[in-house]
Amino acid sequence: MSRKKWPSKKIFNRLLNNKTQKTYWDNISELRRRPNQSVFDEAYKLAKSNIDKQKIIGLHILQQLGFEPRYNKKQTVELHFKLLEKTQSDNVLKSIFHGIGHNNDELNDKQVSKLVEFQNVKNIDVKHALISALSGIEHSKAINVLIIFMKDKVSSIRNWATFGIGSLIESDNKEIRNALWNRVTDNHFETKSEAIVGLANRKDKQIKNIIISELKKGDYGTLLFEAILTIKDKDFLPLLNSNLEIAKKDKNDIKNGWVLALEETINELKK
User: Fold this and answer.
1) d(CA 132, CA 15)
2) Which range (176-185, 209-218, 245-254) has the least confidence?
C-alpha cells in the first residue's frame, strides 16, 4: 500500500520505531501534507516530549505542516521559542532554529532578541541553523549577529551569513556594505561570490571593477553571472564573450560546461 494511503497513526509509529533513517524524511513529508488538527496535536505532543528523538520528530512535522500556508503557524512558532527557554541538546537546538528559519517572517523584537542570545554557540551545525533562523529578518539585532558570523573562521559559516546579509534582506547601510566588502577578498570562492552579489544588489558602483577583475582572471560562476545581470552593464560583454570563446575551446569538461551559462548571460545582457 502506498504511503499516501497509510493512516497517520501508522506513519507516526514508523517514525518512532524504525531502526534506520532510510524512510525518515518520506514519512515526515507525508505527514506535512496532512494539515489537520489530529496530526498537529500528535506532533505538538511529541515536540514537548522529554525525549530528544520524539521532540525532533514533532518539530520536523510542525515546522512545515501544510507547507504554504502553515497550519497553526503562530502556535508552532510560539512552541519553538518556548523550548528555547530550557536547556536543549545540540540536535534539538538545530531542529528548533531550522524550524524558526522556515517561519521567521513575523518575529517580534522579543523573539529576535532570544535568538541573538545564542550567537556564541560553538557547534557548527547549530550555528548553521541559527543563521537560517536569523536570515531574511529586517532587524538590526539579527543583522549584527550575521555580520559577526561573516567573520567566522569556518568558511561555510561565512558563506551562509554572507548570503543572509547579501541576498535575503534589503537593508543597506555603511556597516552592511563594509561587511560585504570585507568578504570580497575572501579565499573561499562562494563566500566571495555571495559578497559580490550582495554589493550588486545594493547597486554599489565600485563592485563593477571587482567583477571585471574576476572575469579577466576567468573566475566566474553562477553567482557572478547573477551579479552581472543585476547591474545590467553592457561593459561586461567583451569579457563575457572572451570567456565564452575560451570555454568553447577548452578541453577541460568543467570549463567547457560553462558555455551555456555564459551564452545565457550574454544574451540576457544584450536585451
Assistant:
1) 25
2) 245-254
Q: What gap in Å lies between CA 195 and CA 178, rounded to an integer?
A: 10
Distance CA 105, CA 248 (A): 44
Q: What confidence tens digit (pLDDT) does each residue in 80-113 have?
A: 999 999 999 999 999 999 999 999 999 999 999 9
Rounded CA-CA distance 181/184 in Å is 5
* Integer Cα distance of 213 and 109 in angstroms: 42
d(CA 118, CA 168): 21
Q: What is the pTM of this model?
A: 0.92
Q: Where are the domains of the chain?
A: 205-271
Read off the DSSP letter of residue 150.
Answer: T
